[in-house]
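Quick one:
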Amino acid sequence: MEFEQLVTLIQTVSDSTLTGFKYEENGIKLSMSREKDKVAFAAAGAAIPAEALQAVQAAPQMTAALQTAEDDEESTSMEDKPGRLIKSPLVGTFYVAPSEEAEPFVEAGASVKKGQTIAIVEAMKLMNDIESEFDGTVAEVLVANGEAVEYGQPLFRIV
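Output:
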C-alpha cells in the first residue's frame, strides 16, 4: 500500500463511525479501534510512517496512541467481576453453534482450553471461528445467538 493510500485509509476510518477496522496485505497488518474519542493503532510486519500518524493526530477531536500486542492480551474485568474477557476480533453476527440444529460450542459452566473454538462471528458471509485465549471455565456468555457484535465487544467471561 502506498503512503498516500495509507494516510487516506487512516483518515477515512478516523472520520467514520466505525469502532474497529483491520486490514492485511502482503504480510502487513493494520488494526485500528476506537474507544469513545480515542483511536488506537497497531501494526505488524511493517512500521506505519510517522507522517501517517501525524495526519491522524492533527484531526480535530481525535487522539492517536500506539497499541501494543501486550495491551491486547491484558484482560479487563466487566463491572468488577472476576475472570478474563474474550472480545470480538471483528464486526459481525455472533453465533454460539456451527448451525441452527447443532449444539452450542460452549455454555456457561463449560470448561474450555486455549485454542478451543467457542463461537463464530460471521462477517461479509465469512464464518470466523472465535477461539478461547486461555484455559478456564465459561462464567458468562455475554452475547445472544444471532446478535450483531462490534469490534472489541466482550463475548465471554472466563474464570
